[in-house]
Amino acid sequence: MGRSFSIYLDLIRFAAAFLVYLYHSNQRFLSTSEVPFSGFGHSAVVVFFVLSGFVIRHVTDSKEAHWADYVASRIARIFSVTVPAIFLTLLFDTVGRAFAPEIYAHSASDQVLARVVLSLLLLNEVWLLSVMSFSNLPFWSICVEFWYYAAFALVIFLPRRVGWVAAALLALALGPKFILLAPIWWAGVLLYRWRMPPWLGRRSALAMVGFSLTGFWLFHALKIDRWGCLWLKAALGQDVAQYLGFANYVVGDYLLTLLVCLNFAGMRALLAGSGGWLIALERPIRQVAGCTFTLYLLHLPLFLMWSAIVRGNPAQPWYWLTVTALVFASVVLVSRQTEAHRYRLRGWLLALFARRGVMAA
């Protein structure tokens, strides 16, 4: 992966997380007017899925060729943030409810032990389950994505036939939501292996990027995501569709996946021989991207808590801006700890593997 394109993906990663924040902060108790660019929250999650598949294929192709490296890195990356996020969500919700319980009308607070255990095991979305990790609604996507990491490891590190059979059995054990959303994640894996033929040239790459951006705008202007969701619910029946959770949007998500892949493919070709402007901005982009996972996993509990504590006037923009500033300041503080623990946990796991005779590449 080229340096400029890597920086571009980090920029997209942060932008997607910020769009998810805008989506969840578009609450009338915080702002009486609609927050700009707040209608792209679910689409940003689709971007995350494609980006995740692409990056995972890259790391196994470049620096995590041994299963021990891969397992240590993935466990450290996920659990260094998810475990603190689970317990911090409990803390933030407790504080927020003490100030303004009405803000938490749609947040789960019962079955504490069950929610904590399922969240720690990342099993919130298995089969007919759809268990919120308290107020942390975005947690659902990590509970799906983590198991794609596991399935990919089976395919890559086991003998080919055994790996595919094991991945298929894992998919069956996890249920229909994982199966329906899997093509989105695996599209990123396939995209990494694809290269634009040289004869297509720069104009074709520009056309791909332009088409992807235009398509993204039309996708939302025409409300294709809502149409696809209604069509799927009608086709499956409400009794079945209610168990699919966010997978109900999968029809529109497939189209959006194609647009994201077009954008990534076109930008990779365009940045192959240029992108100096991105390199000039590398440091700030890398810095904000380093907080992205923590931002994504903690923004909603933090947003609710700070909204409850500040309790400003939603008719004034200062309330939203103050809450947003407090959320991002909190994310920076938490991310410094989670990122530090990530590398410590990875080192500890690799040392454990080494003691057991597993030599990482």
Protein model, in words:
The structure is a single chain. This protein has 361 residues and is mainly α. It has one domain (3-353). It has 15 helices and no strands. The protein has helices at 3-25, 41-62, 67-99, 112-121, 139-157, 160-174, 176-193, 201-221, 224-236, 238-241, 250-270, 276-280, 282-289, 292-310, 317-355. It starts with a helix and ends in a 6-residue tail after the last helix.
Strand content: under 5%
- What portion of residues is helical? over 70%
Helix/strand/pairing class, anyone? mainly alpha
Based on CA inertia axes, which overall geometry fits? globular
Summarize the structure.
The chain is an all-alpha fold. Helix content is 75%, strand content 0%.
